[in-house]
Amino acid sequence: MTTSSNKTVTAVAHTNIALIKYWGKQDSELIIPYTSSLSLTLDQFYTQTSVQFNANLSEDRITIDDHVVTGTGSKRVHDFLELVRQESGLNLSAEVNSTNHVPTAAGLASSASAFAALAAAASKAAGMNLSLTDLSRLARRGSGSACRSIFGGFVEWQKGFDDASSFAVPIETRHLNDIRIVALTVEKHQKPVSSRKGMAFSVKTSPYYPTWIKVVDADLANIKAAIKDNDFTRFGTISELNAMRMHALTLSADPDFLYFTGDTLVAMNEVKRLRHSGIECYYTIDAGPNIKIICQQANVKVITDTFSTLFGPTKVTVAKPGPGVKYL
Ligand code: DP6
C-alpha cells in the first residue's frame, strides 16, 4: 500500500447538457442507469479542482468556491475520495480546492463538471493513471451525468449492466458544429427536489416508468441518426420531445412533483412562438426551472435579443460545444 504522495493535481471539466436524459438508476450504489443518454459538453460552464493527498492531514479538507465545507455539504466529496483511496490503495487524507466557473447569475453549477474534475484530479493525485474510459467510470460513481463530462462535444453514456460496462463514449462527428445552447436562468434558487431524489421517486412511483425505458432506446437511436445526417430539425425535435417525456415522469409520480415555474412555461411558449415564426429553436429542461434553448449560430442574436427583453440580459448566456477534461 502506498502511504505517501504530495503531488497537487489540478483538473478542469466542463458541464454538459443532456439531450436524451438520464432519469433513473437500476443500481443506486454503483450508479448504473436504466437507460443510455446523450449530451453535449458546453464551453461556458466549468469546474476547476485541485487535489493533494497529504500525510499531515488528519481528515479531508474540502473548499468549494472559497468556502470550507463540512458535514452533509461535503459528504458526497468525502465518499468519493474514499472510493479513490480504495481503488488506488493510497491511505491519506486529501486537500480539495474546487471553483465553479459559471457566468454571472447563470445559476448553473453542476454536479457533472464537479465530479468529472474531482475524478480526474483525485485519481491522478493518488497515482492512478486511468484511461479516459476508466476515468468516465470513476466520475460516474460521483454523479451519473459526470461520466459524460470526461469527453467534449456530443457524448453517449452507454448504460451497461455493471461497473465495468457503464461509461461514456465520445461521438466523433463534425456535424452540427454550429449548434448553440442559449441558457436562460429564470430562477437562481436551488431546486426543491434534487435530481437524485426526483429520479428515484419517478422510478418507484410513476406507472409510466417502464414505458420511458422503451422510448429512450428509440429517442437515442433517432438522435444519433440525426447527428449522423447533420439534421438539425430532427435533432432539436427529438431533444425537446425527450425532455418533455422525462418531465412527464415527475407529473405522473405519486405524489406528483414539478420542476417548472410560471416563467419556465413563459419561456417554453416563447420558444414555440419563435419556431412557428420561422426562427428554428427548441428547448430542453433538466431537474430545475431553467431552460436551455437549442439553436444554430445564425439565430443566436434574435433569440438572445428576444429573451433578454423578456427576462433581462443578465439571465441569458450563450454556450458552444466544449472540450473534455484537461489537466493544468
Ligand atoms: C436531469 O447526474 O445529477 O440532468 O447520478 O444522482 O448524481 P446523480 O444524478 P445527476 O442527474 C442528472 C439528471 C438530468 C439529466 C441528465 O443529465 O442526463
From TrEMBL:
Diphosphomevalonate decarboxylase-like N-terminal domain boundaries: 13-168
GO biological process terms, semicolon-separated: isopentenyl diphosphate biosynthetic process, mevalonate pathway
Mvd1 C-terminal domain location: 182-315
Keywords, ordered alphabetically: ATP-binding, Lipid biosynthesis, Lipid metabolism, Lyase, Nucleotide-binding
UniProt-recorded Gene Ontology molecular function terms: ATP binding; diphosphomevalonate decarboxylase activity
One Pfam family matching this protein: MDD_C
Record's keyword annotation contains Lipid metabolism: yes
Name of the featured protein: diphosphomevalonate decarboxylase
